[in-house]
Design brief:
Layout (H helix, E strand, L loop, with lengths): L1 H39 L1 H18 L3 E14 L2 E13 L4 E9 L2 H14 L2 E2 L12 E5 L2 E7 L6 E2 L3 H9 L4 E7 L3 H13 L4 H8 L3 H5 L6 H10 L3
Parallel strand pairs: 7-8
Antiparallel strand pairs: 1-2, 2-3, 3-4, 5-6, 6-8
């Protein structure tokens, strides 16, 4: 019996010690893993990114429209790698608009990257009475050609496909457009932006020429009083 006790006691003592050491090591490993994540900011970055997005959306409400999404593939040694290309238009509905396109392995990531690119390339377009364009214009890019015309109140947005997304994001309520040539959404968007960047307002023309807005609007037999009233009513 003495021999059995002497043999069993060391064995019984080793098992709990070994178990404690093993649990301690696992605890240290888990603690280090969590600490590393905290130091590296894996979860913190997600929170920061969400916070920045909330601040941007809260400070400035933007209209985001997905115009086109396409699946692309790349042939590699092991086969094909598929990805997605997204084309997004972003605007504030008050005269600012931009577009961006990007590629990623997943659709949500491609849309997010394209939206971020569009926000960086937003341009301001002068609007007449905050609802239509000041004058007619033409845009051209590659095989895409577009014609844009100002319209009276109540006309609506007469445009299709990618061009409608641009004018809705821009904040235009009355416009007549026509696309001639290619139906490629990328070329149509670039041609539309070419036409919009060529838009000028009477106020900017008067400043450039050193004249008053009423002097420019008073031409063509318009009375001076009417020209001054029209000049005061201009809102960019």
């Amino acid at each position: 019996m003495a021999d059995e006790n002497t043999i069993e006691q060391p064995v019984a003592a080793e098992h709990p010690q070994g178990g404690e050491v093993h649990e301690a090591r696992e605890g240290r490993g888990r603690g280090r893993g969590r600490g590393d994540r905290g130091e590296r900011g894996g979860r913190g970055r997600r929170d920061d990114r969400r916070g920045n997005r909330n601040e941007e959306e809260g400070g400035e409400e933007l209209i985001e429209k997905l115009v086109h999404i396409n699946r692309v593939s790349k042939t590699v040694k092991g086969g094909k790698r598929f990805g997605f290309a997204a084309l997004v238009v972003v605007g504030d509905g008050k005269g600012r608009v931009g577009f961006g396109h990007s590629k990623a392995r997943e659709v949500p990531e491609a849309i997010t990257k394209a939206t971020a690119s569009a926000k960086k390339k937003m341009v301001r377009v002068p609007l007449k009475e905050g609802r239509t364009l000041h004058h007619d214009g033409k845009g051209h890019f590659g095989a895409g050609k577009v014609n844009v015309r100002s319209a009276p109140a109540g006309t609506g947005i007469i445009a299709g496909g990618p061009m409608r997304a641009v004018f809705e994001s821009l904040g235009v309520h009355d416009v007549v457009t026509k696309s001639v040539g290619t139906s490629n959404p990328y070329n149509m968007i670039r041609a539309t932006f070419d036409a919009l960047t060529n838009q000028t307002s009477p106020k900017s023309v008067a400043q450039r020429r050193g004249k008053k807005v009423a002097d420019l609007l008073g031409r063509g037999g318009v009375a001076e009083v009417e020209a001054e009233a029209a000049a005061e009513a201009i809102v960019e």
